[in-house]
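ok trying this again, last paste got cut off
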Amino acid sequence: MVRGRSEPMATEPNDLYSRDFYAWTREQAQALRAAANRHSNSVAQVDWAHVAEEVEDLGNEQRHAVESQLERLMVHLLELQHSPSARPRFGWQRSVLSARAAIAARWSPALARAVEPRLETIYRRARKMAASELQEHEEFAAAEALPADRPYTLEQLRDENWYPAEPDRTA
């Protein structure tokens, strides 16, 4: 049984491959393991257990890529929301656009189910990185103001038109 697997086997593997690559990798790894357990492979030289592991790792790479982009996205949303500095804002906005595009390119229902429970952990890493970057630019008050709990929903993170309110820079 593949770790964390809850979706049923699809009837059309090729359809699943094009709709949800992450789910396809999970299904194929499970099918390869089942074939290895039945010793039904006609090619005796194939290392089915390792082939299944490698297929599953392809899906894990997709999940890690999405998680990495979510972290980058949250870092720059936090900086946009809390930094009083005007100068780096355009770079952060470009990074937000780029991260959202990379997430959208890999997004699938199965990845959503895998990533959502990890959002708090991803946010804690993003918060540490944003605080470090703000402190590097001597924005200590902004770094202190970063919320301890994740302020963004998954829907907001994926919404290409959503941005948090900017800080008041008139003071």
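PB: full thing came through this time. Residues 1-11 have pLDDT under 50 and may be disordered.
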